[in-house]
Amino acid sequence: QGQLVESGGGVVQPGGSLTLSCEGSGFIFRGYGIHWVRQPPGKGLEWVAVISYDGKYKFYEDSLKGRFTISRDNSRNTLYLQMDSLRSEDTAVYYCAKGDSSSDAYDIWGQGTMVTVSS
Amino acid sequence: QLTQSPSFLSASVGDKVTIACRASQGITTFLAWYQQRPGEAPKLLIHSASILQSGVPSRFNGSGSGTEFTLTITGLQPEDFATYYCQQLNSYPLIFGGGTKLDIK
Predict the structure, then answer these.
(1) Which of A20, A48, A73, A112 has CB 3.0 to 4.6 Å from A81, enough for a Cys bridge?
(2) Rounded to an integer, what distance in angstroms lies between the CA atom of residue B59 and that of residue B90?
(3) In this complex, how many residue pairs, one in chain A and one in chain B, have their CB atoms less than 8 Å apart?
(4) Model confidence over A60-113: pLDDT tens digits?
């Protein structure tokens, strides 16, 4: 079925930077668009960004443009999210999720990695 | 914009429940439903508004098109008490509804 495993979360001060990673296995990683989704503590799901299977196309939630950068390395089966100028409101569990080939719905999710922005 | 209702729902094992999701503009059938249990990642239940994801029990049913969608669970089981989200997949940003928390009455 496939698996995604996130890493790189932690505690960072406001204004700081952090890079998350998401490694895929059990499926043809280079064949699918992959998304980042986040969930602030006790709140709902928020779509963050997507990158196409070949890395050519990237889309972001409007409020995150310029601070977050999505990228991928298909030779390493790994997705990244670079987060700069972090704010307290970026505190959340960050999930990576694979888009289904027919509908783009997320048929594989990672377990999530927690990012806490606090001084 | 996606508006889910209700935000909270109490029901008993064996009940039938319906959750609604309304889109602010037409999205044909580009809609998915997810289930999230506490402490877990979301799980895909239904895509393309009405297509059951492989391995998901048939008591889950999705319907609708355009702007009005519903998720129906017939014969609630103990493991169904969770939070449910809809998501539009028509255009970016791929927003989620606010969620419906289903708990035991």
Answers:
(1) A20
(2) 26
(3) 59
(4) 999 998 899 999 999 999 999 999 999 999 999 999 999 998 888 999 999 999
